[in-house]
Amino acid sequence: MSHCKNFIDGIQQINFSEDIALEIKQALLQSAFDALATEASMIKETLDRLANEEADITQLKVYKSKQQDNLAAIEAQKALITTEISRLAIDTKEIFTIDEKFIRYIADKFSNILHLAKILSDAPPVIKNLQTKLYVETLYKQDKKDQESQLEALTSNNIQDMLEQAVITFNNSDDEALRVKCQQLFQMGLFELIHRDCSKIEKIDIISPDNHAYQSFLLSLTQKLIDVGNSIILDNFSEYQNSRGENISQIISSVTDKLNISADDDWSSKEKIDTAIYQRSLFHKLRFGQEDRREYVDQLKENLERDLFWARNIRDIELFTENPAVDQQFSIFAQRRYLKGAHPFKIETDQKAMKIIGEELTSTKQKLEEALAKNRNYSL
Hints:
- This protein has about 375 residues and is mostly helical.
- Among the domains are: about 1-110, no CATH class; about 140-290, no CATH class.
- The protein has helices spanning about 5-15, 20-50, 60-90, 100-110, 115-120, 125-130, 130-140, 145-150, 155-170, 175-200, 210-225, 250-260, 270-285, 290-320, 325-340, 350-380.
- α5 runs antiparallel to α7.
- The longest helix has about 35 residues, at about 290-320.
- The termini are far apart.
- The model has no long low-confidence stretch (mean pLDDT about 75).
């Protein structure tokens, strides 16, 4: 454990000559001091719990000794930080805000990402969480070819560390511009890692395909890759191209050419089938076609919502217009309402027809009156 040694040494090498130099240095040193204090406290608690344990166990003795050495190293680092703070007369009670201005200031001090990566390798958590933003600020001052050259200088562990931080920043940031740069940085770094492994494979002299070597390569590469989970950071990785116009499919195909792997080989062979399974597993972890699948699922959801909407409307129409039981029940309600004296239904009449009917009724009435009069006269 380095206990922020690389981080503290790197801070001492930075030329803090501007007006905010002391404030910047305060924030960096204080963050390291706080992280070391937390780590020392945890080690002390562990040693206190083990104080009453039997000391005859060899493994326990070794563990205690190692933890005590770690504690001593941490206290030494804390002492160095305290001395530096005292020398610069920095007010440790004053809290300095780590913002975008702070990030740009630190990034401007680095033109070489390898140097930045070394300093951040054991940085305290509060600074480690800014790693991706610092990389973005440092790299995006250069063109893509220079960016790739910078990544080529990093160790594989440095790149893996960078990828892990890039995923965290990408998944938790609401800044769309930063998310785009995180995705580009992640894919650029991942491409470099895969390219390194592909470059290590040498051309074989035999004519027959070396499926075993290809399977080992695929398995090793799959195990090295970071599992991004449900993140969309890799969705369009199959479309990524480096400054030379190469994509991930091409550099993996270069390995199949070196090992004489062909799609025309005998597919009844178990080795060939196993090779295809290993390759499929790698492409799945690289999220090949994931963007298309997500787009297909979104379109399918939209289609289902539309179909369900129309299906519901059709069902409603069937229930209230074509179902005999509904019609019968409606008739019953209408009859009950009519019998209660509520007559909402009126027959529209033809005015001409009603006039004729009225005239006929008047004539009939007159005839009846005349007949009744004659009948009375006859009786008299």
